[in-house]
Amino acid sequence: MHTARLPIIRHMTNTTPTHPAATPRVLIIGCGFGGLEAAKALRGKPVAITLIDRTNHHLFQPLLYQVATAGLSAPAIAAPIRNLFRKQPNLTTLLGNVVSIDAQAKQVHLDDDTALPYDHLIVAAGATHSYFGHDEWAQHAPGLKTLHDAFDIRRRILMAFEAAEKEPDPAKRKAWLTFSIIGAGPTGVEMAGTLAEIARHTLPGEFRNIDPAGAQVLLIEGGPRVLQAMPESLSQRALEQLNRLGVEVRLNSQVTHIDADGLTVKSVVSPDKDCSSSYQINSKCVVWAAGVAASPLGAHIARATACTTDRAGRVKVQPDLSIPGYPSIQVIGDLAAATSHRPGQAPTSVPGVSPAAKQMGQHAANNLLRQIKGQTTLPFVYKDYGNLATIGRNAAVVDLAAPPLGQLRFSGYFAWLFWLFAHVYFLIGFRNRFVVLLDWASAYWSFARYARVVVGDEAGSKKLP
Amino acid sequence: MHTARLPIIRHMTNTTPTHPAATPRVLIIGCGFGGLEAAKALRGKPVAITLIDRTNHHLFQPLLYQVATAGLSAPAIAAPIRNLFRKQPNLTTLLGNVVSIDAQAKQVHLDDDTALPYDHLIVAAGATHSYFGHDEWAQHAPGLKTLHDAFDIRRRILMAFEAAEKEPDPAKRKAWLTFSIIGAGPTGVEMAGTLAEIARHTLPGEFRNIDPAGAQVLLIEGGPRVLQAMPESLSQRALEQLNRLGVEVRLNSQVTHIDADGLTVKSVVSPDKDCSSSYQINSKCVVWAAGVAASPLGAHIARATACTTDRAGRVKVQPDLSIPGYPSIQVIGDLAAATSHRPGQAPTSVPGVSPAAKQMGQHAANNLLRQIKGQTTLPFVYKDYGNLATIGRNAAVVDLAAPPLGQLRFSGYFAWLFWLFAHVYFLIGFRNRFVVLLDWASAYWSFARYARVVVGDEAGSKKLP
Predict the structure, then answer these.
(1) Which residues pair with B259 in a beta bridge?
(2) Minimal Cα–Cα distance from B150 to chain A, Å?
(3) Lowest mean pLDDT, pick from A115-119, A186-190, B43-47, B201-205
(4) At B261, is the pLDDT very low, low, confident or very high (cuts 50, 70, 90)?
(5) Nearest to B8 among A168, A439, A452 (CB)
(6) Are B207 and B165 in contact (CB under 8 A)?
(7) Which of A151, A412, B344, B396 has the highest Cβ tally under 10 A?
(8) With contacts defined as CB-CB under 8 Å, which chain B residues touch A451?
(9) Does residue A460 sit in helix, strand or coil?
């Protein structure tokens, strides 16, 4: 290793004598679905991997909304990264925050001023929420990407009911009991359905001054239908199931303002009308599930390599997931604007979903090994197995690719069971699978949600959100 | 109810018509073991109870050290108060922070300026840590009383190993790998034993630059033995078990200074020696398990009623747990300096343990009902069933009162099993019991600790503790 100037790496060479000097150094940034899969695919290969993440855990993001809605505890969906890789001796875990990439010197810089050299770099830094230029909305309408976000939203939801219980003014009480979810993608739909279930089934009987079942759950969507990645028939099924659960869905409704008291919505049903269709919703608990933007690392990479990014800040990668002119840098997952190249077909863009991130992780690892062997890299081909989304109790929609049969589409109870077992299957660790199943079973039969714990000094209405 | 000036109570009368105007209003401050038990004992009785707590959950504090050491998730030992009392219609839960008590007007004031009138008041506000006048130590050596504390300590422990992994300087690395627990009461002993287990059994294999098993776990105690509430023979057993687990116990050692780099300890073995026996321990992770002080509400009550408090700030109560001259106010649990009055025996002081708090809660509820019926109150009698403490894997000490046999004392594996089932038995809720057993079983066989999740933006050594 050529590491003379780098204390952290020099230190590592002292204790990892298993990698001879010629072992290629692989740096993976981010341990989401993409980074995790790339690291696992390199197990037992002749590379020295450093896996950097800002947190100490891999997060199973598809179930994060359940932590936010008090159905699961954080450890049930978060696995310590070190523990996941304890039996992979060619991998070093590093808790760190990457602030820049020097593509010429082949180094990555952390915020504690250490520099990490690499021979191959896989960037899987993911995405964060985007407020479409209105960052001031973030304080009033948190998004859901990290465990920290989930705890924040859990606190806001539970504290809104507490504040309503204390509030004598009926108008103010109603504002505390109006929950607005912005964006009807999978996360927004799941949040809205679960919130309605909490209000109607979990909390009644526990309050003395309010009726939680009277809470209003609004799902506000700018487009003409919910779950736009789904076929139209399933969007319609999802809408019906949302209505049945008590969610009030407002389609073609754009949010133009958010503050501590609520939001302003512009109805876009008739584009030729004037602005008189704007109206105000008094709502003290607002959740942002609308926009997604790539990690700021995308812009860093673009500056460092003169590559381009798309509107969402995602790095436009080559067919083999590398950056034009920099074959040693691959970008995968939600940070990549990637295309799928099925032989004989026109390239298609790859969606920002976890199966795509996992497939890109495997592909990047494979291409990296091909480069080491002196072979040419292969273009990425995305295998789309389908799409599923849950809405709430007994309610989900499934759109599966079943090649001999074509598309398999179903909704309702069996779709919900399918969603449930698919998610448990993909959870990491036997214990977590077991505990999640147990929690779901107990929640299903009792309607209780056990993780209703709010931590900190939240008492006193002054400190309420 | 005479509530004209109190919006919150007026509001409550609107929606709780089940209590006629003459129903006595009972206010219970705090939902720890004492407050919870008092509230439960008043179920179905002709009183209108308001139960105030600063958090939304009852915490099973005996297992809090397991949350701090990543063995359990927070919801496993915290039950939402509202949910516990959903089937007790004579009880209203209020999330609030009591700042003062007006014993003349029979009102309690919250920090949001609401006033709550009462006919009977039970104060069960508990205790917090005391740094013996050195509050500046708190930032370097957190105590363990709330879930917030537990998360803070969990973060410090896990981040110390992360910082050590990154640190090239051997002396600094050793300071990160030196863990100091101050105070060898039950919490200190449990923390030290579990930390040693984590370092020796959970983490090895996960790091590449450090050997976690080389971490030093120090248990520093001012007195001459560990677990001073236990008989001397069991203290000796506990000490042996701690040593076997790899904990370095320093008895007769007083902490005289704590800062970000470590602590100064004064050996008090020979009281006639000069101060030259002081020495410095470089330790980046320090946990405070030494001093306990009553909630500041104790001082408020003393001011409001001219009663006295003891050295720890606990309110000196009458034999019936009421305050001299104020029969409508009872103080219970860790906030009370109470005495036990077994007929024919001299009064003994009641220890600050959870069974005592529970018994006081039941007793206060009973005396309150007697007052309502015009009967005289009864003096409190503490039934001591014994004492148990765990040390770590297969290690515990038990001192049981088994009246026909006298005292039953045992230690080691069977004491540990006894401790384990006793704690599971007293946990609230079937689900929690089951999940805790499951977590313990999986931790026992695999040595893994699943709740190793640290939340927030912890990456980057600048932000390390």
Answers:
(1) B262
(2) 10
(3) B201-205
(4) very high
(5) A168
(6) yes
(7) B396
(8) 74-75
(9) coil
Which residues in chain A are contacts of B458 at CB distance < 8 A? 54-56, 95
Mean of pLDDT values over B352-360: 95
| Rounded Cα–Cα distance for residues B428 and B420 (Å) | 15
Q: Is the pTM of this model over 0.90?
A: no
Query: pLDDT class for B321, splitting at 50, 70, 90?
Result: very high
Element holding A14 (H helix, E strand): helix A7-15
Residue type, A246: G
CB contact under 8 A, B453 and A80: yes
Cβ contact, residue pair B92, A208, below 8 Å:
yes
Q: Provide the H-helix boundaries in B246-335.
A: 297-305
What percent of chain B shows pLDDT beyond 90? 71
Q: From the CA of A66, how many Å to the nearest CA of chain B?
A: 13
C-alpha separations of B137 from A132, A309, B174, B289, B290 in Å: 45, 49, 21, 12, 12
Q: State the residue for tokens 């607005």.
A: A180
Q: Above 80 in pLDDT, residue B431?
A: no
Tell me the CA end-to-end span of chain A in Å, nearest whole number. Answer: 52
Q: Strands (DSSP E) along A81-149, which ranges?
A: 91-95, 98-102, 107-110, 115-117, 120-123, 127-130
Neighbours of B15 (CB within 10 A): 14
Tens digits of residue pLDDT in A422-447: 888 888 766 677 777 777 777 677 66
Please list every residue in chain A whose beta carbon sits closer than 8 Å to the beta carbon of residue B442.
Answer: 431
Burial class (CB in 10 A: 0-12, 13-18, 19+), B145: middle
Q: How many angstroms separate the Cα of B443 from the Cα of each of A269, B140, B438, B450?
A: 57, 29, 8, 8
- pLDDT of residue A172 exceeding 90, the answer is yes
Residue B330 and residue B361: Cα distance in Å, rounded? 10
Cα–Cα dist B218/B196, whole Å: 9
CA–CA min distance B292, chain A (Å)? 20
3-state helix, strand, coil in chain B (%, to 5): 35, 25, 40
Under 8 Å between Cβ of A397 and A386: no
Question: Which of B162, B245, B175, B248 is CA-nearest to residue B210?
Answer: B162
Q: What residues contact A196, with CB distance under 8 A and at least 6 apart?
A: A217, A242, A245, A246, A247, A392
Cα radius of gyration rounded to whole Å, chain B: 24
Q: Cβ contact (<8 Å) for A208 and B16? A: yes
CA-wise closest residue to B354 among B85, B57, B61: B61
Distance CA A413, CA B325 (A): 64
A389-408 average pLDDT score: 85
Annotated catalytic residue, options B190, B206, B232, B248 = B190
Q: How far is CA B139 from the centre of its chain?
A: 19
Where is A400: in which H helix or E strand?
strand A395-402
Q: Which domains does chain A have, with CATH numbers?
A: 7-54+96-126+295-372 (3.50.50.60), 135-289+430-463 (3.50.50.100)
Determine how many CB atoms are found less than 10 A away from the CB of residue B455: 20
Distances (CA, A) of A68 to A8, A62, B128, B389: 37, 12, 29, 35
Shortest CA distance from A17: residue in chain B: B208
- Whole-angstrom distance, CA of residue A454 vs CA of residue A156: 9
Whether residue B431 and residue A438 make contact (CB cut-off 8 A), yes or no, is yes
Cross-strand bridge partners of residue A389:
A397
Q: Please check the confidence at residue B461 and state whether its pLDDT lies above 60.
A: no
Residue A445 Cα distances to A175, A207, A420, angstroms: 31, 21, 15
Q: Which residues of B touch A168 (CB under 8 A)?
A: 7-8, 10-11
Pairwise CB contact (< 8 Å): B460 & A158: no
